[in-house]
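User: Some background: our group keeps a shared notebook of sequences we're curious about, and every so often someone picks one and asks for a predicted structure to add to the entry. Today it's my turn. The entry only has the sequence so far, pasted here. Could you supply the structure so I can complete it?
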Amino acid sequence: MTANTQATPSFAVHIPDAELEPEPLDPAQIVSGDPVVSGKVLSADGKQLRGIWQITPGVVTDTEANELFVVVSGRATIEVEGGDVIEVGPGDAAVLREGDRTTWTVHETLRKAYHISL
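Assistant: Of course. Here's the predicted structure to add to the notebook entry:
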């Protein structure tokens, strides 16, 4: 196996208190409340995106990517249009399919670590 100097080096991050940066939320996505989104990309190589994402309470809509995530803190109900209702909280892992249209009802500020396949 050859070394790839462009690859992200191995690393660790303490997710619960990692510093995040504000991420704009399209006002058209907000159904109710005043949710605020922040995040941090930990690595990206054009095929995969890994990071931390947080949202404060409120209700928002989204069109999903091909994503696996693990909830670190907080709680939310994710309604998949034409599909299931998913309840997530600390320690839960969830998979969302690319193109799923969702409505997120965030009950408590939710922080997750995610992996998106591009």
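Suggested note for the entry: The longest strand covers residues 101-117. The chain is about 0% helix and 60% strand.
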